[in-house]
Amino acid sequence: MPDPRYLTWNEKWLIAPDMINCSECYAAQFMVNRDTDFEHGPTCTRRGPGQRPYMELLVMLTAIQDDLPDGH
After folding, report:
1. Residue 72 lies in a domain
2. Which residues form the domain of 26?
3. 50: CB partners within 8 A, 6+ apart
4. Residue numbers in the chain where pLDDT is lower than 50
5. What is the DSSP string of 17-67?
6. Is residue 45 part of a domain?
């Protein structure tokens, strides 16, 4: 079962083909910048260090895949 904090990923982030946006301030991070902390807008209440939505998504999808029955 995935870590419960990842179950809210889709409430915090909006995914597009080439970027992820904050669902609150709509700041964007392109895939080429996935290894850097996400930079929210200056008034966003979700601002803070260490947010890496691409890495969170990868961990979440890996956990879900690990929970699938064998053969999938």
Report:
1. no
2. 4-67
3. 37
4. none
5. SSEEEETTT--EEEGGGTTS-----TT-TT--TT--HHHHHHHHHHHHHHH
6. yes
